[in-house]
Amino acid sequence: MDGMNTATTTAHNNARTADAQTTAAIAVDELVKRYGEHIALDYLTMQVRRGEIYGLLGPNGSGKTTAINCILGLLSYDSGDIRIFGEHMSPTNYALKRRIGVVPQDIAVFNELTVEENITYFCSLYVPERARRAQLVNEAIDFVGLGDYRTYRPRKLSGGLLRRLNIACGIVHQPELIFFDEPTVAVDPQSRNSILEGIQRLNAQGSTVIYTSHYMEEVEQICDRIQIIDHGRQIALGTADELKRMIDVGERISVEAPTLGSDAKLREHVLDSVRALPAVIDVDFADDMLEITCTQGAHNLIDVLQTLRTLDVPLGHVSSHTPTLNDVFLALTGTELRD
Amino acid sequence: MWSTFLTAMRVNLREKSSLFWLFCFPILLSTMFLGMFGNLSATYTITTMDFAVVADDSYCKAAGARQLLDAMQRDPVTADCSAGTESAADTTDTGGTDLHDLLTLHTVPTTDEAVELINGNADVRGYITVDGDGLMHMTISRSTVSDANDAMGSAGLPVSLSILNGAIGMFNRQNVTVGDIVRTGPALLRDSTFLHETQQTDSFTHEISLTHFQPDEGARYYYALLAMTALMAMSFAVTSVCTTQANLSALGARRSLAPLTKFRQLMGGFLASWLCTFLALLVALLYIRFVCNVQFGGRWAAIIFALLVASFAANALGTLLGALPKLSSGTKIGLTTALSCGLSLLSGLYGSGAMELSDWIQRNAPAVALVNPTQQVTNLFYDLLYYDSYAPFFRTVGILMIMSAIALALATVFLRRQRYEHL
């Protein structure tokens, strides 16, 4: 029996490996979802590769959660095609559902059950065997670090611990594909780091992860590829570096120059001189700070500082930043990501 | 489905507000009923009343009046009458009734002293005098009038006064009739049959038993309370359905994504809610029966069956409420409370006025009573107490089952949806 099981498992794994090589984890093609006149998803296309952490980045209301709900079969949609592991997704495709884990944006647990009972219940929806279930529940509790809180009811947990419970309920059956929908909203920095590390560990163990957030730093930190969407449309797609290369901005320089605030003539002269530098795209002065936006360049900071010294401008604090995804979003849409 | 059932049981039995409203509230309310309506059953019970009797010459001469009054006392007083009469208590036939306990008489020599006595002692309800024609007259004190009008505070007094008044009235009528006969046809007095019949009144009244159990006026309020409890327990089913609906809660959305059919999830929740409702009703019933001492007719198998039917119907209606589209969970729970309270009014829960309304509806708008689940659940227990036959009980069971079938069919239509336009 054992030999047969091994042979079957091996064959199954081989098939899965072949399957993995030929099909994407998620393939969304020209998905359209309308709420009356409002278009929530506007021919959105998405290809998620197996084994990657795929970030879906966009401001609140951009269509991230709507896209996920359509992919998961919760929401109806007007047109388009959705396939998960090559299969058409429908609410009654239970075999496919068994391979998926979801960590929703809102806490979705029973307040009347303890931590362990909640995780056990959600595990039981996917795993019928009791013995295996007990093992998976223990692993999930260990994974999210809730071992000391097994008998706690959700109301007794802090926001961060609640998020961890929410995650444990979504991943307890060890799914191949996991959706994390804004899992760090209203979470303290320590818990946030813990959650992000956990997601990376899940990915390292073989799970494909879809991660939605409007926190660009998180997406940039953990995602292999990032799709930026706004108004239900794809704005850009690529790795963080690829996205940053799509825009002209290469560096942002901030210089503290308090004397410019009281001398309008000098200020205008300084702004004109800095703006004349070849790498400078834009320069602005506000709150005693000169904000200079430059293209990519190795000597941007030196050039700016030399110009200011030539003009005898007393300098305070000076800093230089590489562009963020917010800059990418700003450049591509004309609005801030956090608007 | 089994794990969903167990989880739903845990959730239902750990939800504090459900525990209070479904397990504690019926006990609190029935305890209140016990205080408010506890003496309702005593309304038709004879209570012994203290009365003064003016033992003047007219009283002493009226042998018949004395005989009647002696018959209504457990220990007849001996009036100081010079004209010797035979012992009334020894010869009076009370017809096997409890009229022996109707009166405790205090003899006074004059009417003035009788008035003084009833004004000075509230326990003495009134006084009885006999006039020169041998007719009796009853006078009651102001405090007795007040007490008699307070049905809750003086159970049994009105009916006891009524019996005394009736007995005196009948005595007086017979006295007048016999007097007329003596004047117009004295020969009839030699007819022993005629004489015998004039002394008998019990042949006009027969005591029969229509039910196998003694009627209990207060029981209906407790039955209505059980019906209200059943309907409030709809909240179990409403919550159970709402937590499987993706458009009603984050929990519902997550459960909708699980590889378990919606039917199994709903069925697990329904069975748990049914069992919890049954337990809530059983606890309330046991308290009402054994602490409040309210009768249910003693047919325990049928009573348990009634609880199962009532709890099933409540959960079927709760499932329909939970499945109603375009309403939030909070609205549905609010509707549950409003329906259980509102329909309980029509089934007579809130006192004698509501009970009269319930009776009026039953007589004048039977269709409203027919579709009112609280009325039908109330009827379940009413049928078992008052009818020897099971036919009315099974008719009520049938009505509730039809109601349940319609509710579940409609709920199925609403719950078949798998995808939503909005979340």
Please provide a written account of the structure.
The complex is a heterodimer of chains A (339) and B (423). Chain A is of the alpha/beta class and 339 residues long. Chain A has helices spanning 2-22, 64-71, 94-97, 115-124, 130-144, 159-171, 189-204, 216-222, 240-245, 264-275, 300-310, 325-333; strands at residues 26-35, 38-48, 53-57, 79-84, 87-88, 100-103, 177-181, 208-213, 225-230, 233-238, 251-256, 280-286, 289-294, 318-321. Among the domains of chain A are: 10-99 and 176-185 and 202-246, Rossmann fold (3-Layer(aba) Sandwich), CATH 3.40.50.300; 251-322, Alpha-Beta Plaits. Chain A is 39% helix and 25% strand. In chain A, helix 4 (115-124) crosses helix 5. Chain A is elongated, with a radius of gyration of 25 Å. The relative contact order of chain A is 0.12. Chain B is 63% helix and 6% strand. Chain B is built from 19 helices and 4 strands. Chain B has helices at residues 2-14, 16-37, 57-61, 63-71, 88-91, 111-120, 142-149, 157-184, 192-199, 219-232, 234-242, 250-256, 262-290, 300-323, 329-346, 352-364, 366-371, 373-386, 391-415; strands spanning 49-54, 103-108, 124-130, 136-140. In chain B, strand 3 (124-130) and strand 4 form a beta hairpin. The radius of gyration of chain B is 31 Å and the shape is elongated. Chain A binds chain B through residues 35, 69, 72-76, 91-92, 94-95, 97-98, 100, 102, 104-110, 112-113, 117, 120-122, 124-126, 169-170, and chain B through 3-4, 7, 10-11, 14-15, 243, 246, 249-251, 253-261, 418-423.
